[in-house]
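Predict structure. Input: Nitric oxide reductase, 399 residues.
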Amino acid sequence: MYKPVKLTDDVFYVGVNDRRTHLFENIWPIERGVAYNSYVIADEKVALIDSVEIGQVEKYLKKIKAIIGDRPIDYLVVNHMEPDHGGSIDIIRKMYPEIQIVGNKKTLPMLEGYFGISDNTLEIKEGDCLHLGKHTLNFYLVPMVHWPETMVTYESKEQILFSADAFGSFGTLDGAIFDDEFEFEYYRDEMRRYYSNIVGKYGSPVQKALDKLANLDIKMIASTHGPIWRKYIKEVINYYDKWSKYETEEGVVVAYASMYGNTEEMAEAVARELAENGIKHIRVHDVSKSHASFIISDIFKYRGVILASPTYCNELHPNMEALTSKLVHMGVQNHYLGILGSFSWSGAAVKKLTAIGEQLKWEIVGESVEEKHALKSNKYDACLKLGTAMADRLKQDRK
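Output follows.
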């Protein structure tokens, strides 16, 4: 029934698309859906690399059967235990009771915790190999990319890196499975949004993982989400290197909260002044409308950030507080920050945004602006000065 999707003669894609779920991890909007990727190596022994989210298991199993027929599966390699990949493990185990589940010392307790499975497992260590016949699997531990048990599997004959969540992307695979079957730009922004929100907190572990894998000859990267990379491998690895070092481009993200439009006026004034001073990349977000995942993705791309909030019950506006809490939790580094605030009777927003900037160790640019009641001409001019100061600071970095 299913025409097999071949990575090579013996290696197959058996992933599935999810276009129904609205929120990935019940947090992140996925208007373009998401793919759950899994792979079969049909050699003298059969290996299944990762599984899929439980709601997709029926069509997943049909794809596996279309490739191996009535053959047993000898090994299930679990690179990552998160339920969007590990959710089908129990069903697979019941269908293939002799299957041996392969994981590391941090995988196996999770396997027991989620499914009560503690037998017929194979614990591997860093650098261990598993021979399937013509194909050999090599295992490398990459903890905190982005769970502590995460590992990657390298198939040395075909030089395929099964990379777990690393190098993944939001977005379903709409006919095209491989990166040379569609325009690369279509997935680039969703790849950054995926990285910044799912993996972005773990820049240092990503750097360690990249160093560990640097000497491998990789002809294909098969992630658990998004396209299979075989043309743009260098570009994808370079993006991960850049993002995990918090390297950014010239541009400004203006993120504001505004209840009645006064703080929005301040943000608009700064944005216009940025444009008049030659800043081409300006992204303005109302934090009550734009989901934080899109704002955070833009912040991972652009160096300048303007945060603007009214004081709300002597705190930040709740949606600005939620955004800044995420930024602090993720430890986002290496940005320039401009601050705007407004209030009606007691101002606290500028003070709190300043403390957040200091906590993040971001460079605070220009004079922060705080207005009482409606925006007046002197504070409007101060907003323009802040826009100019941010533009000047960004232009100092030009080479």
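The CA atoms of residues 343 and 372 lie 5 Å apart.
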